[in-house]
Design a protein that fits this description.
The chain is mainly α. It is 76% helix and 0% strand. The protein has 13 helices and no strands.
Protein backbone atom coordinates (compact mmCIF):
# COMPACT_ATOMS: atom_id res chain seq x y z
CA UNK A 1 0.00 0.00 0.00
CA UNK A 2 1.34 3.42 -0.95
CA UNK A 3 1.85 6.24 1.54
CA UNK A 4 -1.02 8.13 -0.15
CA UNK A 5 -3.39 5.20 0.31
CA UNK A 6 -2.33 4.89 3.95
CA UNK A 7 -2.96 8.60 4.54
CA UNK A 8 -6.38 8.49 2.83
CA UNK A 9 -7.43 5.42 4.77
CA UNK A 10 -6.40 7.07 8.03
CA UNK A 11 -8.47 10.14 7.12
CA UNK A 12 -11.36 7.87 6.23
CA UNK A 13 -11.13 5.95 9.51
CA UNK A 14 -10.99 9.13 11.60
CA UNK A 15 -13.88 10.68 9.67
CA UNK A 16 -16.00 7.56 10.00
CA UNK A 17 -15.30 7.28 13.74
CA UNK A 18 -16.31 10.93 14.15
CA UNK A 19 -19.56 10.37 12.25
CA UNK A 20 -20.38 7.25 14.27
CA UNK A 21 -19.67 9.09 17.53
CA UNK A 22 -22.03 11.89 16.46
CA UNK A 23 -24.85 9.49 15.63
CA UNK A 24 -24.32 7.74 18.97
CA UNK A 25 -24.90 11.12 20.61
CA UNK A 26 -28.14 11.47 18.64
CA UNK A 27 -29.28 8.02 19.79
CA UNK A 28 -28.54 8.96 23.39
CA UNK A 29 -30.54 12.19 23.08
CA UNK A 30 -33.52 10.38 21.53
CA UNK A 31 -33.51 7.79 24.31
CA UNK A 32 -33.38 10.52 26.93
CA UNK A 33 -36.41 12.24 25.37
CA UNK A 34 -38.39 9.07 24.62
CA UNK A 35 -40.31 9.06 27.89
CA UNK A 36 -41.87 12.50 27.44
CA UNK A 37 -42.37 13.24 23.76
CA UNK A 38 -43.58 11.55 20.57
CA UNK A 39 -40.98 10.20 18.16
CA UNK A 40 -42.74 12.02 15.31
CA UNK A 41 -42.28 15.34 17.12
CA UNK A 42 -38.56 14.73 17.54
CA UNK A 43 -38.23 13.75 13.86
CA UNK A 44 -40.08 16.87 12.65
CA UNK A 45 -37.87 19.19 14.70
CA UNK A 46 -34.78 17.35 13.48
CA UNK A 47 -35.96 17.60 9.86
CA UNK A 48 -36.62 21.35 10.11
CA UNK A 49 -33.17 21.99 11.58
CA UNK A 50 -31.48 19.75 8.99
CA UNK A 51 -33.23 21.42 6.06
CA UNK A 52 -31.08 24.56 5.64
CA UNK A 53 -27.90 22.55 6.21
CA UNK A 54 -28.87 20.08 3.49
CA UNK A 55 -29.83 22.88 1.09
CA UNK A 56 -26.41 24.44 1.62
CA UNK A 57 -24.76 21.08 0.91
CA UNK A 58 -26.80 20.65 -2.29
CA UNK A 59 -25.81 24.15 -3.45
CA UNK A 60 -22.16 23.45 -2.62
CA UNK A 61 -22.12 20.12 -4.46
CA UNK A 62 -23.69 21.17 -7.75
CA UNK A 63 -26.62 23.51 -7.22
CA UNK A 64 -30.36 23.17 -6.60
CA UNK A 65 -31.02 22.27 -10.24
CA UNK A 66 -29.93 18.70 -9.51
CA UNK A 67 -32.98 18.30 -7.23
CA UNK A 68 -35.11 18.20 -10.39
CA UNK A 69 -34.24 14.60 -11.15
CA UNK A 70 -36.29 11.96 -12.99
CA UNK A 71 -35.38 9.56 -10.17
CA UNK A 72 -37.36 11.52 -7.58
CA UNK A 73 -39.80 8.61 -7.13
CA UNK A 74 -36.97 6.19 -6.34
CA UNK A 75 -35.40 8.72 -3.98
CA UNK A 76 -38.73 9.22 -2.23
CA UNK A 77 -39.25 5.47 -1.89
CA UNK A 78 -35.75 5.11 -0.46
CA UNK A 79 -36.56 7.94 1.95
CA UNK A 80 -39.71 6.08 3.03
CA UNK A 81 -37.66 2.95 3.77
CA UNK A 82 -35.24 5.02 5.85
CA UNK A 83 -38.13 6.71 7.65
CA UNK A 84 -39.51 3.32 8.70
CA UNK A 85 -36.00 2.29 9.70
CA UNK A 86 -35.35 5.27 11.93
CA UNK A 87 -38.82 5.30 13.51
CA UNK A 88 -38.62 1.62 14.48
CA UNK A 89 -35.00 2.06 15.61
CA UNK A 90 -35.93 4.97 17.86
CA UNK A 91 -39.00 3.11 19.16
CA UNK A 92 -36.74 0.41 20.57
CA UNK A 93 -34.85 2.88 22.78
CA UNK A 94 -37.36 3.36 25.62
CA UNK A 95 -37.82 -0.41 26.02
CA UNK A 96 -34.26 -1.70 25.55
CA UNK A 97 -30.82 -0.92 26.96
CA UNK A 98 -29.09 1.46 24.55
CA UNK A 99 -26.26 -0.98 23.81
CA UNK A 100 -28.67 -3.76 22.80
CA UNK A 101 -30.79 -1.52 20.56
CA UNK A 102 -27.69 -0.27 18.75
CA UNK A 103 -26.02 -3.70 18.52
CA UNK A 104 -29.06 -5.36 16.95
CA UNK A 105 -29.20 -2.62 14.31
CA UNK A 106 -25.66 -3.52 13.28
CA UNK A 107 -26.89 -6.71 11.60
CA UNK A 108 -27.45 -4.46 8.55
CA UNK A 109 -24.50 -6.05 6.62
CA UNK A 110 -26.15 -9.47 7.06
CA UNK A 111 -29.40 -8.25 5.51
CA UNK A 112 -27.50 -6.41 2.75
CA UNK A 113 -25.75 -9.70 1.95
CA UNK A 114 -29.05 -11.59 1.81
CA UNK A 115 -30.79 -8.94 -0.30
CA UNK A 116 -27.90 -8.38 -2.73
CA UNK A 117 -28.52 -11.76 -4.36
CA UNK A 118 -32.18 -11.43 -5.42
CA UNK A 119 -32.17 -7.62 -5.87
CA UNK A 120 -28.76 -6.99 -7.46
CA UNK A 121 -27.93 -10.38 -8.91
CA UNK A 122 -24.73 -10.60 -6.84
CA UNK A 123 -23.32 -14.01 -6.02
CA UNK A 124 -23.10 -14.70 -2.30
CA UNK A 125 -19.78 -16.31 -1.43
CA UNK A 126 -19.28 -19.04 1.17
CA UNK A 127 -17.52 -16.46 3.34
CA UNK A 128 -20.60 -14.24 3.20
CA UNK A 129 -22.86 -17.14 4.16
CA UNK A 130 -20.53 -17.80 7.08
CA UNK A 131 -20.95 -14.17 8.09
CA UNK A 132 -24.73 -14.60 8.09
CA UNK A 133 -24.48 -17.61 10.40
CA UNK A 134 -22.09 -15.85 12.80
CA UNK A 135 -24.27 -12.73 12.85
CA UNK A 136 -27.45 -14.68 13.53
CA UNK A 137 -25.71 -16.44 16.41
CA UNK A 138 -24.86 -13.01 17.84
CA UNK A 139 -28.46 -11.87 17.46
CA UNK A 140 -29.76 -14.96 19.27
CA UNK A 141 -27.33 -14.37 22.14
CA UNK A 142 -28.67 -10.84 22.59
CA UNK A 143 -32.35 -11.69 22.05
CA UNK A 144 -32.44 -14.88 24.17
CA UNK A 145 -35.78 -15.96 22.62
CA UNK A 146 -37.85 -18.18 24.88
CA UNK A 147 -36.16 -16.91 28.02
CA UNK A 148 -37.63 -14.65 30.66
CA UNK A 149 -35.41 -11.76 29.56
CA UNK A 150 -36.59 -11.76 25.91
CA UNK A 151 -38.05 -8.36 25.01
CA UNK A 152 -40.23 -8.23 21.87
CA UNK A 153 -39.15 -4.60 21.40
CA UNK A 154 -35.82 -5.99 20.20
CA UNK A 155 -37.61 -6.99 17.01
CA UNK A 156 -38.01 -3.26 16.29
CA UNK A 157 -34.23 -2.93 15.96
CA UNK A 158 -34.18 -5.89 13.58
CA UNK A 159 -36.99 -4.36 11.49
CA UNK A 160 -35.00 -1.12 11.42
CA UNK A 161 -31.93 -3.00 10.19
CA UNK A 162 -33.96 -4.75 7.48
CA UNK A 163 -35.47 -1.56 6.06
CA UNK A 164 -32.13 0.26 6.30
CA UNK A 165 -30.47 -2.56 4.34
CA UNK A 166 -33.21 -2.28 1.71
CA UNK A 167 -32.48 1.45 1.41
CA UNK A 168 -28.76 0.71 0.98
CA UNK A 169 -29.53 -1.78 -1.79
CA UNK A 170 -31.70 0.83 -3.52
CA UNK A 171 -28.90 3.38 -3.27
CA UNK A 172 -26.44 0.91 -4.77
CA UNK A 173 -28.83 0.00 -7.59
CA UNK A 174 -30.16 3.45 -8.51
CA UNK A 175 -27.90 6.00 -6.90
CA UNK A 176 -24.78 5.82 -9.01
CA UNK A 177 -25.37 9.23 -10.60
CA UNK A 178 -27.05 10.90 -7.63
CA UNK A 179 -25.05 12.88 -5.08
CA UNK A 180 -25.23 12.11 -1.39
CA UNK A 181 -26.54 15.61 -0.63
CA UNK A 182 -29.46 15.14 -3.04
CA UNK A 183 -30.29 11.78 -1.46
CA UNK A 184 -30.13 13.40 1.95
CA UNK A 185 -32.42 16.25 0.85
CA UNK A 186 -35.16 13.92 -0.43
CA UNK A 187 -34.73 11.73 2.62
CA UNK A 188 -35.26 14.72 4.90
CA UNK A 189 -38.39 15.84 3.03
CA UNK A 190 -39.91 12.38 3.39
CA UNK A 191 -39.07 12.35 7.11
CA UNK A 192 -40.83 15.67 7.59
CA UNK A 193 -43.98 14.86 5.61
CA UNK A 194 -44.35 11.29 6.89
CA UNK A 195 -43.89 12.27 10.54
CA UNK A 196 -46.43 15.09 10.21
CA UNK A 197 -48.91 12.77 8.47
CA UNK A 198 -48.61 10.03 11.10
CA UNK A 199 -48.94 12.48 13.98
CA UNK A 200 -52.02 14.06 12.36
CA UNK A 201 -53.71 10.67 11.93
CA UNK A 202 -53.06 9.64 15.54
CA UNK A 203 -54.37 12.96 16.86
CA UNK A 204 -57.44 12.85 14.59
CA UNK A 205 -58.26 9.32 15.76
CA UNK A 206 -57.47 10.31 19.36
CA UNK A 207 -55.23 7.29 19.81
CA UNK A 208 -54.16 6.92 23.43
CA UNK A 209 -50.86 5.44 24.63
CA UNK A 210 -51.50 1.80 25.66
CA UNK A 211 -48.76 1.71 28.29
CA UNK A 212 -45.95 0.01 26.37
CA UNK A 213 -42.92 2.34 26.19
CA UNK A 214 -42.23 1.73 22.50
CA UNK A 215 -45.86 2.16 21.36
CA UNK A 216 -46.31 5.14 23.67
CA UNK A 217 -43.31 6.81 22.02
CA UNK A 218 -45.06 6.48 18.67
CA UNK A 219 -48.65 7.51 19.50
CA UNK A 220 -48.12 10.01 22.34
CA UNK A 221 -49.65 13.47 21.78
CA UNK A 222 -47.30 16.31 20.91
CA UNK A 223 -46.55 18.75 23.71
CA UNK A 224 -44.65 22.01 23.75
CA UNK A 225 -41.09 21.03 24.70
CA UNK A 226 -39.04 22.89 27.23
CA UNK A 227 -36.34 25.20 25.90
CA UNK A 228 -33.70 22.59 26.80
CA UNK A 229 -35.53 19.72 25.13
CA UNK A 230 -36.26 21.75 22.01
CA UNK A 231 -32.55 22.52 21.84
CA UNK A 232 -31.73 18.81 22.13
CA UNK A 233 -34.17 17.91 19.34
CA UNK A 234 -32.68 20.62 17.16
CA UNK A 235 -29.20 19.37 17.97
CA UNK A 236 -30.21 16.01 16.50
CA UNK A 237 -30.80 17.75 13.17
CA UNK A 238 -27.34 19.30 13.21
CA UNK A 239 -25.82 15.97 14.26
CA UNK A 240 -27.62 14.16 11.43
CA UNK A 241 -26.39 16.61 8.78
CA UNK A 242 -22.77 16.69 9.93
CA UNK A 243 -22.68 13.00 10.85
CA UNK A 244 -23.73 12.03 7.33
CA UNK A 245 -21.12 14.41 5.92
CA UNK A 246 -18.41 12.68 7.94
CA UNK A 247 -19.58 9.24 6.81
CA UNK A 248 -19.80 10.28 3.16
CA UNK A 249 -16.29 11.76 3.29
CA UNK A 250 -14.97 8.60 4.96
CA UNK A 251 -16.11 6.37 2.11
CA UNK A 252 -15.05 8.89 -0.48
CA UNK A 253 -11.37 9.00 0.60
CA UNK A 254 -10.89 5.60 2.23
CA UNK A 255 -11.18 2.04 0.99
CA UNK A 256 -14.50 0.52 2.07
CA UNK A 257 -12.97 -2.74 3.30
CA UNK A 258 -10.58 -0.74 5.51
CA UNK A 259 -12.90 1.88 6.99
CA UNK A 260 -16.20 -0.04 7.29
CA UNK A 261 -15.21 -2.19 10.32
CA UNK A 262 -14.81 1.00 12.32
CA UNK A 263 -18.58 1.55 12.11
CA UNK A 264 -18.80 -0.97 14.93
CA UNK A 265 -17.31 1.60 17.28
CA UNK A 266 -20.97 2.60 17.54
CA UNK A 267 -21.50 -0.41 19.80
CA UNK A 268 -18.77 0.83 22.13
CA UNK A 269 -20.48 4.21 22.35
CA UNK A 270 -23.77 2.44 23.07
CA UNK A 271 -22.25 0.65 26.04
CA UNK A 272 -20.51 3.83 27.24
CA UNK A 273 -23.52 6.18 27.08
CA UNK A 274 -25.87 3.50 28.35
CA UNK A 275 -23.71 3.02 31.45
CA UNK A 276 -22.88 6.69 32.08
CA UNK A 277 -26.32 8.23 31.51
CA UNK A 278 -28.81 5.40 32.06
CA UNK A 279 -26.93 3.11 34.50
CA UNK A 280 -27.25 0.19 32.06
CA UNK A 281 -24.74 -2.63 32.39
CA UNK A 282 -24.81 -5.09 29.47
CA UNK A 283 -25.03 -8.81 30.22
CA UNK A 284 -22.03 -11.02 29.28
CA UNK A 285 -24.17 -12.67 26.58
CA UNK A 286 -24.89 -9.22 25.13
CA UNK A 287 -21.18 -8.40 24.95
CA UNK A 288 -20.47 -11.75 23.26
CA UNK A 289 -23.38 -11.23 20.86
CA UNK A 290 -22.05 -7.77 19.97
CA UNK A 291 -18.61 -9.25 19.24
CA UNK A 292 -20.16 -11.89 16.95
CA UNK A 293 -22.25 -9.27 15.11
CA UNK A 294 -19.14 -7.12 14.57
CA UNK A 295 -17.21 -10.15 13.31
CA UNK A 296 -20.07 -11.06 10.97
CA UNK A 297 -20.07 -7.55 9.52
CA UNK A 298 -16.37 -7.76 8.70
CA UNK A 299 -16.83 -11.24 7.19
CA UNK A 300 -19.82 -10.08 5.14
CA UNK A 301 -17.77 -7.19 3.75
CA UNK A 302 -14.90 -9.48 2.79
CA UNK A 303 -17.39 -11.98 1.35
CA UNK A 304 -18.85 -9.29 -0.92
CA UNK A 305 -15.36 -8.32 -2.05
CA UNK A 306 -14.56 -11.97 -2.81
CA UNK A 307 -17.75 -12.32 -4.84
CA UNK A 308 -16.83 -9.26 -6.93
CA UNK A 309 -13.32 -10.59 -7.57
CA UNK A 310 -14.65 -13.89 -8.84
Amino acid sequence: MTAQHTTNNLKGILSLCAGVALFAMQDTIIKALSGQYAVTEAIVVRAFVSFPVLVALVVHHGGVAQLDTPQWRTLSLRGACLFVSYVTYFMAFPALPLAEAIALFFVVPIFVTLLAGPMLGERISFLAWGAVIVGLAGVLLILRPGSAIFNPAALLSLLAATTYALAMIMARKHGGNIGASVMGFYQNIVYLLAALAIATVFMALQVKPPGHPSIDFLVRDWVVPSFRDMGLMGLCGIIAAFGMTFLTYAYRVGQANVVTPFEYTGMVWGVFWGFVLFQETPRPTTILGMALIAASGVLALRGQATAKIH
